[in-house]
User: Which sequence fits this backbone?
């Protein structure tokens, strides 16, 4: 899974011009920009073909947040990387506690921070 | 300003999601950064820049023919509410008593200018979302025979009745958005917004709790590397569309982007001032000499979203 290779492959294959949409692709005799609906439909089709339940588009933003955190990126760095201006993104984590639990427990350092961020304050 | 970093793998890697993927690859991060407005051009000493610059019209987006109203959601005809594309409704539907010049020093054109500039505070899709709130509100008022003068400014009671009517039919977030839409319309047209916040907050909270199960959003599960690998095996990467889709997925994921920042809503909806074009892709090196991929996002809703969340 190498994003740079994926991007390079696409650029070579579809060769969008400088002023066109980055993910423009060849279609019939011309080019067209990648539409959100088309993008999500293709992903859903591929997920079904793999025997998986399709996920929603926003999962593409939540996913890397978890991935980077679980790989040890500090929360404050993640906040900047995701361009969040508030701590609202920790809500994503709170909602996914069950999904995350097995992964998080494997990384004690992240788990500590996670608990500090998601547990309600003791008063 | 460079946002995001590319690390020379200082972190331990206790979990490997894919044996093929090294930490280094993962951290060769794609960096998405927001490009703020371009710096003003330097002016010769003393030169005066002309005011009242022409605005991008209409704010923003293209003209489309209006689609017919749905049968159960058609407003009674009124000169105040022309049939127009949804994206223009917030601007073109007028209250009975809009902003009016206090003195003869300000002309109608000055007032038009205020509205035209103000309309740019909302993104095009926010205009479209709010159009639906305005439509629902006006249809509600039609059904209740509410006279024009009582529709704007809306009274506390009327708005509460509107919210209560929709509760348990629509989701709480839709109803909240309707309230924000009506509020935005008041602000845009200079109509005072006098809504008792405490009371409204409680009512909206109730509407949230009464969200019908059919309107509940499916849980948004995170994408994982494994999931993306499975998808990759089922996409035809040699096809133009497949190659583009997978590149978009990988870019969006590693740049922690929004799908909306990397795709377009409509086929003719590409706008180089809003969407990422190829010209905005560049490569750089970090201090350790590693390659960094940089994407400029011309415009984003990330910050606006927050404003909307607190609106009301």
Assistant:
């Amino acid at each position: 899974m190498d994003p740079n290779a994926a991007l390079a492959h696409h650029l070579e294959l579809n060769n969008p011009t400088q002023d066109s949409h980055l993910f423009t692709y060849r279609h019939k005799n011309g080019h067209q920009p990648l539409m959100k609906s088309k993008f999500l439909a293709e992903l859903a089709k591929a997920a079904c073909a793999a025997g998986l339940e399709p996920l929603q588009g926003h999962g593409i933003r939540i996913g890397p947040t978890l991935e980077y955190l679980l790989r040890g990126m500090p929360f404050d760095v993640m906040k900047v990387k995701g361009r969040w201006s508030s701590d609202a993104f920790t809500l994503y984590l709170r909602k996914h506690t069950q999904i995350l639990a097995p992964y998080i427990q494997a990384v004690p350092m992240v788990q500590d921070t996670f608990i500090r961020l998601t547990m309600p304050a003791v008063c | 300003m460079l946002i995001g970093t590319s690390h020379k793998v200082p972190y331990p890697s206790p979990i490997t999601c894919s044996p093929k993927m090294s930490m280094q690859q993962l951290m060769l991060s794609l960096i998405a950064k927001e490009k703020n407005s371009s710096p003003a051009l330097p002016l010769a000493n003393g030169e005066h820049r002309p005011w009242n610059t022409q605005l991008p019209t209409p704010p923003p987006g293209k003209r489309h023919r209006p689609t017919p109203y749905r049968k159960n959601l058609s407003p009674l005809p009124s000169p105040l509410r022309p049939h127009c594309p949804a994206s223009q409704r917030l601007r073109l539907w007028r209250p009975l008593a809009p902003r009016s010049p206090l003195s003869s020093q300000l002309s109608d054109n000055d007032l038009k200018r205020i509205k035209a500039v103000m309309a740019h505070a909302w993104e095009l899709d926010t205009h479209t979302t709010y159009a639906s709130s305005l439509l629902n509100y006006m249809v509600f008022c039609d059904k209740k025979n509410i006279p024009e003068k009582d529709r704007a400014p809306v009274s506390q009671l009327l708005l509460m009745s509107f919210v209560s009517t929709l509760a348990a039919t629509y989701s709480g977030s839709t109803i909240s958005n309707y309230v924000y839409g009506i509020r935005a319309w008041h602000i845009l047209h200079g109509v005072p917004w006098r809504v008792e916040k405490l009371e409204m907050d409680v009512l909206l909270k109730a509407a949230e709790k009464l969200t019908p199960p059919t309107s509940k959003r499916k849980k948004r599960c995170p994408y994982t590397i494994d999931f993306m690998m499975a998808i990759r095996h089922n996409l035809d990467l040699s096809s133009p569309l497949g190659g583009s889709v997978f590149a978009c997925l990988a870019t969006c994921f590693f740049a922690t982007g929004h799908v909306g920042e990397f795709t377009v809503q409509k086929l003719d909806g590409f706008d180089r001032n809003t969407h990422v074009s190829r010209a905005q892709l560049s490569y750089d090196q970090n201090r350790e000499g590693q390659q960094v991929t940089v994407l400029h996002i011309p415009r984003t809703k990330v910050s606006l979203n927050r404003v909307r969340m607190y609106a009301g």
About this structure: Residues 265-305 of chain B form one domain. The mean pLDDT of chain B is 79.
